[in-house]
Specification:
The protein is an all-alpha fold. Helices cover 82% and strands 0% of the residues.
């Protein structure tokens, strides 16, 4: 994994981990690895997706897309990572806005 990806994941985690954790009622993990952040996104996706509230289900769909982009960024060439992480950021932002 490139240093750029690690730094970018850290920036995304800093922006979104607390909000995601608050949405689902858990403490943000102290594990700052990209995989731990993806796990948090997937946990929030699953919890919100199991709700009967339409806006939470919509947020879950955005989180699903974000998790896919984050996972792809871990294994993609450096040239694609920036674009994938930007797409993930957009879906994370939209999910939090929709769920809130």
């Amino acid at each position: 994994m490139a240093v750029q990806t690690t730094d970018s994941f850290a920036a995304l985690r800093a922006c979104f981990a607390t909000d995601l954790a608050l949405l689902i009622g858990v403490q943000p993990s102290r594990d700052a690895t990209p995989t731990a952040f993806i796990n948090l996104v997937e946990e929030a996706r699953d919890i919100l997706g199991s709700s009967s509230l339409g806006h939470w289900q919509d947020a879950s769909e955005d989180l699903d897309r974000a998790a896919d982009y984050l996972t792809d960024a871990l294994t993609s060439p450096d040239s694609d990572q920036r674009s994938l992480l930007a797409r993930a950021r957009t879906h994370l932002r939209d999910a939090i806005a929709t769920a809130g």
